[in-house]
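ok so for the tutorial part 2 we go from a plain amino acid sequence to predicted structure tokens. step 1 is just haveing the sequence, like this:
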Amino acid sequence: MEHPQSLQSLARELAALPPSLGPVRLIGIDGHAGSGKSTFADRLAGALGGAPVLHLDDVATHEELFGWWGRLREQVVAPLAAGRSARWAPYDWVERRFGPERVLEPAPVLLVEGVGAGRRELRPYLARLLWMETARTTSWGRGRNRDGRELSDFWDGWERAELAHFADDPSRPFADALVHQSGTGYEWTSGAAATPETRPSVTEGDGLPQA
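step 2 — the prediction. this is what the tokens look like for a chain of 211 residues:
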């Protein structure tokens, strides 16, 4: 049986991987909406010494919940692959338009988190794919509670879109590791794309993260 390690140990493992996108080690964090991806990404980024996090909620739009790959490839993936800074504009979900341009430098480790972070077009550029192992109904319940009744109609549409996306392009079967949440924090176990010998368990005693 494997011995639990700290989130810092996971960070060291990821930082030691070979680059996967130009000079960048791109780490995907996927899972159902409301599964705790953002919280986990923020904590992992801290353990990595402040690694940048690209949130796919800033890439998707009302019209393109999952049709954003072409824009991400042009604005982010291609420049980073060439070792250049990426320039992209995050989407404003309130104003329904793209906001001011941001610059994303080719950092040693870049976390990309969001539903679809393990999609087939992005997987070839990932050094690791992590899947938040939280049941779909639990995740969606968290998301609805978080966003309130005023976004109920949006969630109805989102759930249909997410079901269709994962039916066509599932991420979990390709995950290197499954990240479980518990009262003591996180546990990291091998995914379908990994073996126990190469993917240790990870726990972090910071308490159960919010969705």
